[in-house]
Amino acid sequence: xxxxxxxxxxxxxxxxxxxxxxxxxxxxxxxxxxxxxxxxxxxxxxxxxxxxxxxxxxxxxxxxxxxxxxxxxxxxxxxxxxxxxxxxxxxxxxxxxxxxxxxxxxxxxxxxxxxxxxxxxxxxxxxxxxxxxxxxxxxxxxxxxxxxxxxxxxxxxxxxxxxxxxxxxxxxxxxxxxxxxxxxxxxxxxxxxxxxxxxxxxxxxxxxxxxxxxxxxxxxxxxxxxxxxxxxxxxxxxxxxxxxxxxxxxxxxxxxx
Length: 257
Prior knowledge:
The chain is an alpha+beta fold. 42% of the residues lie in helices and 13% in strands. It has a three-stranded mixed sheet, covered by helices on one side. A two-stranded antiparallel sheet has the order 1-2. A hairpin with a 4-residue loop joins strand 3 and strand 4 (187-192). The two termini are 50 Å apart.
């Protein structure tokens, strides 16, 4: 699959082949005619793009981390416009789509050569595609992070209920959790380690962490990955763990051999 930039450039190049807008309209009409057939049962109210004078249906699915679109319209020019858009953006990651400025539309002069109602419809199509991409994106805004803060606290509390099989300290304060990420879909991703690669109960502890986090209200899924890079050492202990183990005066230079 060609890159997003290459796809946009291809559209710009195609439009530049025509001097007259009547010819460019014919090009749009041909795009609409070649649009993948849209199932009649999917022509529902919830799939209609708001703000379009003509009816435009847009359906999307996420597969392999990429967004795929299917669309139709009852107006031939409008059908060509939505075909143009999904031809460029279908099959891209949500992050690619959400982060794009759609400026190639201005470069081909499409908006200013449409009637006001069709131009408004074009804007609505772009806004809808971007909204779907943002909804499926795992990139967090500052507002998302603030909203997820209580969920992070609850997940950490759940992890603290799991104890290392050899040291009487929970795996969080022991410093075994290297990474904790919760995305916009409330899926938790955890990267953790053990004090030694030969831990005999590693599988059981991993499963316990996974279950404890998955059971937190609001968490939709949990994935736990094991790593030994970097190797664990005593400097990773929390202050609470040092106190619990009687190591208040522990210096980070006194690492375990």
